[in-house]
Amino acid sequence: MNNGALSVTAYITHGVLSGAAVQRISSSKLEELVITDSIQPRGEMVASSNIRVISTAALIGEAINRTSHESSVSSLFD
Predict the structure, then answer these.
(1) Angstrom distance (rounded) from CA 78 to CA 75
(2) Which domain holds residue 26?
(3) pLDDT tens per residue, range 24-71
(4) What does the alpha-carbon distance between residue 29 and residue 37 come to, in Å, rounded to a whole number?
(5) 59 in a structural domain
(6) The model's pTM
(7) Beta-carbon contacts of residue 15 (< 8 Å; ≥ 6 apart)
């Protein structure tokens, strides 16, 4: 932002937000932090206005289904 960015968004997969991390993110200039639920999100993460938790359940379920039916898993990411 100090170098001219209009907004900043961050994406993480396995968010271990410990200590005061959620409070620091909530009060930061981040427009949004997008995090998967691969680690159970704490209530304060869900309540934060600039943290969005997205589910991996459907993707993992479909990967398991395709694996058990010997179908392509890589096509999930095309």
Answers:
(1) 5
(2) 9-77
(3) 999 999 999 999 998 888 778 778 889 999 999 999 999 999 999 999
(4) 23
(5) yes
(6) 0.75
(7) 33, 35, 36, 39, 41, 45
